[in-house]
Design goal:
Layout lengths: L2 H7 L5 H17 L14 E10 L5 E7 L4 E3 L1 E4 L6 H13 L4 E3 L6 E7 L2 E3 L2 E3 L2 E12 L12 E8 H7 L6 H14 L2
């Protein structure tokens, strides 16, 4: 996906998504002057990440993992790490983090885009500076009876969460508004 083309034609859902879209355009335009790719986490300022929003066929449950790092329930995802096929990254991350092998992509385009701030932290014996995640979320449907399992180094549990309980169990301040927005989009668009 060519991000600048996508950002120029994307129709934001609300003011927060529009502000993030504008920031992405500014970053992409600045990137033209800098050869460091936004698709690689070596870009210490901002880089592309991908998330999976996985719903059941009735759209009344969402699959979440209890993340070791953040200590809360949340979506699955990860860094693009140089890959520009973001749907492939989303599928790979879901397979790794919850064991799902059969997922149906419900829309070719991301269901949501946001810029998330990441605080400075220590990972893999290295200090990581505060930076931005340019996060693209893709919507998938999966069979809630398919075998799922946690990935112990990333999450300690995976579970289908009823949508009416989802915001109560995802108590992370930065992503809760994004989760609410995605659930509203799924409901409104009847995806």
């Amino acid at each position: 996906m060519e991000l600048l083309d996508w950002a120029g034609s994307y129709w934001p859902y609300d003011e927060a998504e529009e502000a993030d879209r504008k920031a992405l355009v500014q970053l992409l335009e600045a990137r033209k002057k800098n050869s460091l790719s936004l698709y690689k986490r070596e870009n210490l300022t901002a880089h592309v990440t991908v998330s999976c929003w996985i719903v059941n066929a009735r759209r009344n449950h969402t699959l979440l993992g209890f993340h070791n790092l953040y200590k809360h329930w949340g979506w699955f995802g990860g860094h693009a790490d140089g890959e520009t096929d973001l749907v492939a990254v989303a599928r790979k991350e879901a397979a790794e983090e919850c064991g799902l092998q059969s997922m149906k992509l419900l829309a070719d385009e991301p269901v949501d885009f946001c810029i998330l701030g990441v605080g400075a932290h220590y990972k893999n014996q290295m200090q990581v500076p505060a930076h931005l995640h340019l996060n693209f979320t893709y919507l998938f449907e999966a069979d809630e009876h398919e075998f799922i399992r946690p990935k112990p180094d990333e999450n300690k549990a995976v579970s289908w969460i009823a949508n009416e309980r989802l915001l109560a169990v995802t108590n992370e301040e930065a992503t809760a508004p994004v989760y609410k927005r995605i659930m509203e989009k799924v409901k409104e668009r009847k995806l």
